[in-house]
Write a structure and sequence with these properties.
The structure is a single chain. The protein has helices at 3-9, 132-138, 149-152, 156-163, 171-192, 200-204, 210-219, 227-234, 238-249, 253-268, 276-283, 288-299, 303-310, and strands spanning 17-23, 28-31, 37-44, 47-51, 57-59, 64-68, 73-76, 85-88, 92-94, 105-106, 111-113, 120-127, 144-147. By secondary structure, it is of the alpha+beta class. Strands 10-11-1-12-3-6-13 form a seven-stranded mixed sheet. A six-stranded mixed sheet has the order 5-4-7-2-8-9, with no helix packed on it. The model has no long low-confidence stretch (mean pLDDT 83).
Length: 314
């Protein structure tokens, strides 16, 4: 499993909220939906993103910004424009005083705004549920990641804008996958760009030994790996593998494996139908007790506590 595949398998949209906004100035939207991850794509015009915990960002046509939650932010035509609407969890929309908003017109399928043909058009894709594997991998990113249209020329920007207004059978699944692809393309472009602080595992995949070892661990977390087994599979000595892996990834192979297994377990536990025994088998622990002990030791809570506190509402 390479880093891009891992990114897809982590933050995977399931019934994501995708909305096309068409606006004429003055306009300003305050977003407090507590979403773990949001992707905003500028199709036409300009906008300002004003995050609560990061510097403001100006967006132009083709630009994409990825915002990590749960902190709020404001989208506006101008930083001085006061918010006219607030987006709450569940995509509930109110005026700033808390009254239900009814005067921003619906303009068709998955489209809203204050003008039928506004100067600004943007598509917002919101991941509704936290995914622990994604959180593990996305931890290397800044709270706000911006890609300029002229720097990456990504055709997915136009495609997701076009698909967002359709209402065909299976359209929700199409939009989920397009959102995933757009996010992964943005992350890949950012990782490969100048000045990016790439996580160790991303750069290490290019190494013929360590990259192979990473793929083995990520593809087969349930296997009873040891450093000796991993070294044999990659064709080097245990000492060589341990040294090169630690230098490039930033932690020893078995430490990486433990983190990967528990991140997978944390994600799997959010499925209410998954038993602790089944999750343990999937991530390489011989018994539910062994998984519980490791989970508690590394994450500070039991699997049941994690499931209770992190599971999204129905």
């Amino acid at each position: 499993m390479d880093p891009v595949v891992a990114l897809v398998d982590g933050p995977r949209a399931r019934g994501a909220f995708v909305l096309r906004s068409v606006m004429d100035p003055p306009w300003s939207l305050r977003v407090e939906d507590r979403a773990p991850l949001t992707v905003v794509t500028m199709v036409r015009g300009h906008a300002h993103v004003l995050p609560d915990s990061a510097a403001p960002v100006h967006l132009g046509p083709g630009d994409v910004v990825v915002l990590q939650g749960p902190d709020g932010y404001t989208l506006a035509d101008d930083p001085a424009t006061a918010p006219q609407a607030v987006i709450h969890p569940g995509q509930r929309c109110t005026r700033v005083d808390g009254t239900t908003l009814v005067d921003i017109a619906g303009l068709g399928v998955r489209t809203w705004g204050n003008a039928a043909d506004g100067a600004t058009v943007m598509v917002t894709g919101t991941y509704q549920r936290p995914h622990e594997v994604g959180r593990h991998l996305l931890g290397a990113l800044p709270p706000v990641l911006t890609l300029r249209g002229e720097e990456w020329d990504e055709p997915l920007v136009a495609l997701i804008a076009r698909e967002s207004i359709h209402d065909r059978p299976g359209q929700e699944a199409v939009l989920d996958r397009l959102l995933d692809l757009l996010l992964v393309a943005a992350l890949r472009a950012w990782f490969d760009g100048p000045g990016a602080q790439r996580p160790g595992w991303y750069g290490a995949t290019a190494d013929p030994v360590v990259g192979h070892a990473l793929r083995l661990l990520q593809d087969g977390p349930a296997r009873p790996w040891t450093v000796a087994h991993l070294a044999a599979a990659t064709g080097v000595s245990r000492a060589t593998l341990a040294r090169r892996f630690t230098e490039l990834v930033g932690e020893p192979p078995m430490s990486f494996l433990t983190t990967w297994r528990l991140s997978l377990a944390a994600d799997l536990l959010l499925d209410p139908d998954a038993t602790l025994a089944a999750v343990a088998r999937q991530v390489g622990y011989s018994t539910p007790f062994a998984l519980s002990a490791a989970f508690k030791r590394h994450r500070g809570v039991s699997p049941q506590e994690h499931r209770t506190t992190k599971a999204p509402p129905d």
